[in-house]
Amino acid sequence: MFKFLKGVVAGSGTGVKDLPYNIGEPYSSAWGSWIHYRGTSKDDGSPVSVFALSGNNPQDGHLAAGRNGVKRLRTVRHPNILSFLHSTEAESLDGATTKVTIYIVTEPVMPLSEKIRELGLESTQRDEYYAWGLNQIAKAVSFLNNDCKLVHGNVCVASIVVTQTLDWKLHAFDVLSEFDGNNPAASGPMLQYEWLVGSQYKPMEMTKSDWAAIRKSPPWAVDSWGFGCLIYELFSGVKLSKTEELRSTDPIPKSLLSDYQRLLSSTSSRRLNTSKLLENSEYFQNKLVDTIHFMEILSLKDSVEKDSFFRKLPNLAEQLPRQIVLRKLLPMLASSLEFGSATAPALTTVLKMSSWLPIEDFNVKILPTIVKLFASNDRAMRVGLLQHIDQYGESLSAQIVDEQVYPHIATGFSDASAFLRELTLKSMLVLAPKLSQRTMSTSLLKYLSKLQVDEEPAIRTNTTILLGNIASYLNDGTRKRVLINAFTVRALRDSFPPARGAAGIMALCATSSYYDMTEIATRILPNVVVLTIDPDSDVRSKAFEAVDQFMQLLKQSYEKMSSEDATGSVGIGISSIPGNASLLGWAMSSLTLKGKASEQAPVATANASTKISSSVSTPNLGVVTAPSTTMVHASSTTDLNELPVPVSPTSTDGWGDINGVQDDHESEKDGWDDIEPLEEPKPSPALANIQAAQKRPVSKPPSQPKPPVTSIKPKTTLKAASEEDDDLWGSIAAPAPRSSSKPLNVKPAASKVIDADDPWAAIAAPPPTTSVKPLSAGRGRAKPTAPKLGAQRINRTSSGT
């Protein structure tokens, strides 16, 4: 029965072997006869502290006091009192005697004296940290004295420990006892184990064992004296050796001196209550104490107070002790963000503070909270996450990005806010390398296909730039199907000049290593050459540079095929051309620039010594835009019809699959597969006649005399606009060529359909000069001396009959 009661009081377990914790190295100091060890949990390896007290006699007074401390620590709970986890007693044989050891397991802590030496704080930062620590201990002592009517009996530096978050906590409850001053029948010592307290820490009435005077004193009288001893030891930096040393006030801060003297009053009834100390002392009013106090009651503040606080916090954090910011403030901020009590501006502060952490600590303490924030529906929080993604994006693993982050970010591609769409687009520069091929082909490319026709010209431009930068992360089949179509059919035909030059042309140059010579000659160069006569000078200059670059690739291919060491299939890439790195760097910097247009630095192009002028952003977006401020307005007024861009020479101008190319996911489609191929443009009537004449031999009629030669320039008229509605690119088709030479005498074309074998018939060269009878040029008027082609055909038929 005695053993059962002993186990209830002392704790669970039968010995140190059954203790579910590992005991490590001891600290150099601890209160009383206790030994303070580092420890870890056997279950999960989490750190703990283990306190051990040994005695050779089971009836030893130290062991009895230790058991009192275990009981009190187990039952008294307060944020500023050491947290109890486990306790046990173990018996062992030490020669002929039995040794009894009491173990207490608590949260991981360190002795205050050792933590102060480790932090090494000085001047103002030291005083601010001391003020915060004394504030916490004063709350603990006030709780014991005023709320629980308990007397600690030995408040000093040795009875204070510090947690991993640098909070101060009170322990050493061996002397702790109830205050029985209200009990008239009480007699004898009020503190049963007061003999454990050093004489230097005892107030005058306790030194004299005047328990009647102690019982007549307020409950806080003994511990207020001890709190004064704590203040002296803290600021003097030495352990108190005798009571007379307390008279030296030189180390005590002036703002705390009057309160210090009232705590050590010789009259016990006049000593200052620790609760009043917190309310009245100026010493506890500083930036660190106010900041932590605000964070502790953050949920009680309104939105205006929160916003004001978090906007000031980044600058304030620079002035606070760095270790306290990282170990105390940062975890509090991260927790408040995760559980919704903090607003979006707090994210900026968290990211700034976390930049001071080692990368290992950041990944463990902060990154999980950031990942959870992506699921928030707060648009301001999403904007903050995307604006600072370059600060933490590299720390995200590929699995977390693909499974937890991207599904939430993808909703921003179709957001009604252009600003959020653009931030989402720019974030892909960091996240795309971590996405799986399935996610990129089935989701990301579809969103980018829609953004390439976005109403905002800057978003269209940046989408093209992003495609150029993530091309290396696409598989070969996807690159074959997407890149050329995205850059030529859409980017090079965009009405916004930077989308053609700064994005389309530069993206083609930066990704030229992915194109074979056939694609360069038949699909890329024909589309780029047309831009050499673009209305915008910057587009023209980039077009000439791109033409030079691709022509150099073709020349290198020709030289290799002509040499004896040719290997058959030749694919010369951009890697052999100087300047490829600057092209990729240009595209990347253009996408990530967040400053104003005037702050954007010019970037050198591949084959030119001159620099590309910086771009100007469109309103509200501020990314890649026109080469001059005037081009921003031109983006809304420039008509696509004014640009002489030819139709694509391929069989499909859309984003369909190219013959012979198989993607890894044949059953899946990206955004470019849904676009229907464009129809071949229908030429004007005059051009159709000329083309038909070029495709059949010209023969002189034997029976007809040679008509007089006239130099007639037939006038042509275009078909009505309604006939071109079916032609997607009819508005930018090349105009019909005019010739001053003599027209051919041929029969009219039976059909207006262009030969499918000649996709470039719409921009064919003028017909050669002949001496045959002139043809009539459609519906245009002719001079009286030149008969129309129809009349000549009728005359020739009648003469034959």
| Main structural class | alpha+beta
User: Distance between termini?
Assistant: 141 Å
Could you describe the largest sheet, including whether it forms a barrel?
Answer: 5 strands, antiparallel
Q: In DSSP terms, counting alpha (H) and pi (I) runs of 4 or more, how many helices?
A: 29
Quickly describe the structure.
InterPro entries: ARM-like (IPR011989), ARM-type_fold (IPR016024), CIK-Related_Protein (IPR051177), HEAT_type_2 (IPR021133), Kinase-like_dom_sf (IPR011009), Prot_kinase_dom (IPR000719), Ser-Thr/Tyr_kinase_cat_dom (IPR001245). By secondary structure, the chain is of the alpha+beta class. It has 29 helices and 12 strands.
Structure overview:
The structure is a single chain. The protein is of the alpha+beta class and 801 residues long. 43% of the residues lie in helices and 8% in strands. The strands form four sheets. The chain has a five-stranded antiparallel sheet with strand order 1-2-3-5-4, covered by helices on one side. A three-stranded antiparallel sheet has the order 6-8-9. It has a two-stranded antiparallel ribbon with strand order 7-10. α10 (287-296) runs parallel beside α12 and α23 packs across α26. The longest helix has 26 residues, at 537-562. It starts with a helix and ends with a helix. The model is unreliable at 1-15, 568-669, 674-681, 698-765 and 768-801 (pLDDT under 50). Residues 662-672 have a biased composition (Basic and acidic residues). GO terms for molecular function: ATP binding; protein kinase activity. Residues 699-708 have a biased composition (Pro residues).
